[in-house]
Design a protein that fits this description.
By secondary structure, this protein is an alpha/beta fold. The protein contains six helices and eleven strands. Bound molecules: flavin-adenine dinucleotide (FAD).
Length: about 270
């Protein structure tokens, strides 16, 4: 593998919490392609790239010279396109993330030249309310949607539900709280599952995003519960959360969307 095959540069890297990072990558000498908020890019590193200190040893055999590649939802706006921002969690035993977490500003990385994915707002009606539900880094595609749509004056009612174990794992918290305060049509609801481990008592709801949906949190803000007629629901992140939410939603008449059979629930599974 030649150094130049790693065709992008790390412009910025912020560790939000241990094992949670926001990274900005910039193509070196080529243009980022157009993309739609909600889509994903692919990052890659060679097997001889070092792993970060807190990772487990690599048990896997990698073919020398063959890039290890994985998909990452884009968190940045599709309008301001100087860089791609990605929001990544460390899988300590994983193949790629321990190598990504060892990257420093200025290091090189492979960025796939093609951006793809169908987890976008294209097939949601313009007049439907949007409930965007995520665990952990499943928030990334919604950040791209919000950062693209809100400055363009989108007035749809939008709610983000974000679940994490601890308050410090709620990435983009200050940006989302600020949007919530500034934009009457936008609501941000967060929930943590391990409140007993908080050093400062957590004043918000405790449990899982499923509990936020079952409760009346959004009803109190919107004045009514979202229904299949009024809203589209997006689910992103942990597949166990997605399966659970899909089952709860099905009981309320929400059907999963596909091109062949338009429905009310849009899904992106990270694994
Ligand atoms: C369309 C798409 C978009 C994705 N976007 C993101 C993103 O924006 N941010 C992100 O962090 N990951 C994202 N992922 C997951 C990502 O592609 C990798 O699977 C992940 O980074 C682990 O890679 P790895 O090589 O370190 O682990 P691997 O050696 O590939 O191990 C995979 C295992 O890691 C665990 N795992 C994978 N992803 C996560 C995760 N996000 N959180 C906790 N455990 C996980 C699962 O147990 C999985 O079986 C996305 C996946 C898909 C398919």
């Amino acid at each position: 593998m030649r150094k130049m095959d790693l065709n992008a540069v790390v412009q910025q890297r912020v560790e939000v919490a241990p094992g949670l990072m926001v990274i900005r990558v910039v193509p070196d000498g080529w243009e980022l392609p157009d993309f739609t908020p909600g889509q994903f890019a692919v990052l890659g590193l060679p097997p001889d790239a070092p792993r970060c200190d807190i990772a487990d040893p690599d048990e896997e055999e990698h073919k020398p010279g063959k890039l290890i590649r994985r998909a990452y939802s884009i968190a940045s706006s599709s309008v301001a396109r100087e860089y791609l921002e990605l929001y990544i969690t460390l899988v300590r035993s994983g193949a790629l993330t321990p190598r990504l977490f060892a990257l420093e500003t200025g290091d090189r990385v492979w960025l796939g030249p093609k951006i793809s994915g169908r987890f976008t707002l294209d097939e949601a009606p313009d007049d439907a309310d949007l409930v965007l539900i995520a665990t952990g880094t499943g928030l990334a595609p919604y950040m791209s949607m919000l950062r693209t749509m809100l400055p363009q004056g989108d007035e749809r009612r939008i709610a983000v539900f974000l679940g994490a174990r601890h308050s410090w794992d709620l990435g983009y918290q200050s940006e989302l709280v600020t949007l919530d305060r500034m934009k009457p049509s936008f609501s941000y609801l967060s929930i943590i599952s391990r409140p007993a481990e908080e050093p400062v008592p957590w004043g918000g709801p405790a449990g899982y995003v499923q509990d936020l949906w079952r409760g009346d949190h959004l009803q109190r803000i919107w004045g009514s519960r979202p229904t299949p007629e009024s809203a589209r629901v997006f689910l992103c992140g942990n597949p166990a959360m997605i399966d659970d939410m899909a089952a709860i939603l099905a009981e309320e008449g929400f059907r999963e969307h596909s091109r062949k059979q338009p429905g009310h629930v849009f899904v992106e599974r990270y694994w």
